[in-house]
Description:
By secondary structure, the protein is mostly helical.
Amino acid sequence: MKGGETDFEISFFERLVKESPDFVDALIPLAEAYTKKGLHDKALVLDKRLARLKPNDPTVHYNLACSFALAGKKEEAFQALEQAIGLGWHDFEHLKKDSDLKILRDDPRFQQLVSSKEEKSSE
């Protein structure tokens, strides 16, 4: 039934977004549903829109980094992740385990970014 629930969520939130394209409270769950369904390109489009609508929201930029990573766009994922951290994202334990960011973990920049930001946040 889980797949059916996700399909229902997509249908429901797509209707809301069609009526109100900048309705953040519908865009966020729609992007999440697209991601659950493996529709990473669609999720990325919405996460980019959300980043424009909420430019100072660290969670929005973190989700954008995840979408870029899932779409195979490593450089953009790093940029969005750095922005999320700069805006106040501080859940480094989640970040280190998040399967959405898997393609970044083997890159030395990932560990360097996490280590340097963890040190600053503990000061």
